[in-house]
């Protein structure tokens, strides 16, 4: 079969077949009377083998080894091809992500594109200073895609840079909330913590709804951050978690302050005081926890808190009794 017929049958161009010949990959078995290359059925079969191996990503040199070297080990080469393909996919995915983020900002000029690229590169810099400047620039100069800000804030370890990123994310609106919500379900505790911290700084109704949901998160740290933020926003759902924090002695001062802020609403004051009293009477709180609960009653207005403090001023635990008496004295002097 002549080269033109082989090209039509195999789909390999005549030029490439000549290239294969020059490399010694497929040498035609014979020549016609006019000196043209003639391919046998075995030659054509070898061409199909070459094309099959090339489709896997093998170079022509590797194809030659695979077909002609008796000691060739295909498993090693396949493993290497898998590694190379994964690296290529990762690189292409990174490029696609970068292009998508640039497109999301809807740049109007190439100067905008270059500035966005520079900011994205700075967000991934090893220098904390560069990352922090990029976070601030994303609000003051060229906007950075929200997706990039969320990715940066969820991976940031430097507290100063993290603060700048959270601020930038809060200025961008609620566009990153869905991604932050995914962060709350991360298997990595630090990522969950960064996600909830970022949500607490977004003053938005959807953010508040996410924080309400976070009160049921399996991660106790997430629940605590959510409760403190919700307390500051006047959401009564946070009360049980805040009281737990007082009992456990974890950020108990902040938790007591949040309870006090909530208790400024008359409808909540007696409910909060009753819950604190219930924990005091429950019998499971240790001496230090009972003192913290008593101290938490100090800034809870209303008759329920006052009656509880009067009872506690006679408590068997002298420290609790003295604390309650001292608080009562201050309340009476107001």
UniProtKB/TrEMBL annotation:
InterPro entries referenced in this protein's UniProt entry, alphabetically: ARM-like, ARM-type_fold, DNA-bd_dom_put_sf, MerR-type_HTH_dom, MerR_fam, PBS_lyase_HEAT
One Pfam family hit: MerR_1
The entry's keywords: DNA-binding
Protein's UniProt keywords contain DNA repair: no
Keyword set includes Electron transport: no
Superkingdom classification of source: Bacteria
Domain HTH merR-type: 1-69
Residues spanning the signal sequence: none
Record GO terms (molecular function): DNA binding; DNA-binding transcription factor activity
Name of the protein in question: DNA-binding transcriptional regulator, MerR family
């Amino acid at each position: 079969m002549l080269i033109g017929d082989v090209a039509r049958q195999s789909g390999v161009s005549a030029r490439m077949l000549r290239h294969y010949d020059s490399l010694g990959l497929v040498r035609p078995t014979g020549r016609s009377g006019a000196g043209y290359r003639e391919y046998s059925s075995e030659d054509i079969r070898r061409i199909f083998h070459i094309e099959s191996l090339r489709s896997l990503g093998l170079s022509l040199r590797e194809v030659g080894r695979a077909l002609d070297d008796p000691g060739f080990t295909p498993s090693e080469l396949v493993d290497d091809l898998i590694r190379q393909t994964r690296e290529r996919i990762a690189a292409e995915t990174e490029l696609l992500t970068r292009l998508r983020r640039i497109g999301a900002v809807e740049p109007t000029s190439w100067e905008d594109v270059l500035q966005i690229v520079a900011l994205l590169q700075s967000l991934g810099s090893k220098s904390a200073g560069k990352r922090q400047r990029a976070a601030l620039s994303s609000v003051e100069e060229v906007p950075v895609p929200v997706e990039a800000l969320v990715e940066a804030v969820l991976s940031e370890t430097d507290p100063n840079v993290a603060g700048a990123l959270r601020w930038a994310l809060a200025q961008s609106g609620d566009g990153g909330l869905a991604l932050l919500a995914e962060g709350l379900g991360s298997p990595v505790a630090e990522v969950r913590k960064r996600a909830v911290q970022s949500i607490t700084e977004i003053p938005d109704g959807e953010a508040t709804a996410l924080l309400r949901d976070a009160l049921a998160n399996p991660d106790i740290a997430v629940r605590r951050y959510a409760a403190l933020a919700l307390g500051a926003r006047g959401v009564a759902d946070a009360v049980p978690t805040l009281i737990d924090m007082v009992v456990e002695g974890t950020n108990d001062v902040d938790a007591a302050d949040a309870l006090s802020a909530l208790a400024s609403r008359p409808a909540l004051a007696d409910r909060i005081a009753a819950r604190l009293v219930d924990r005091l009477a429950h019998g499971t709180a240790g001496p230090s926890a009972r003192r913290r609960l008593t101290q938490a009653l100090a800034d809870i207005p209303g008759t329920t808190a006052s009656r509880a403090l009067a009872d506690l001023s006679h408590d068997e635990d002298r420290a609790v009794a003295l604390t309650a008496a001292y608080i009562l004295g201050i309340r009476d002097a107001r």
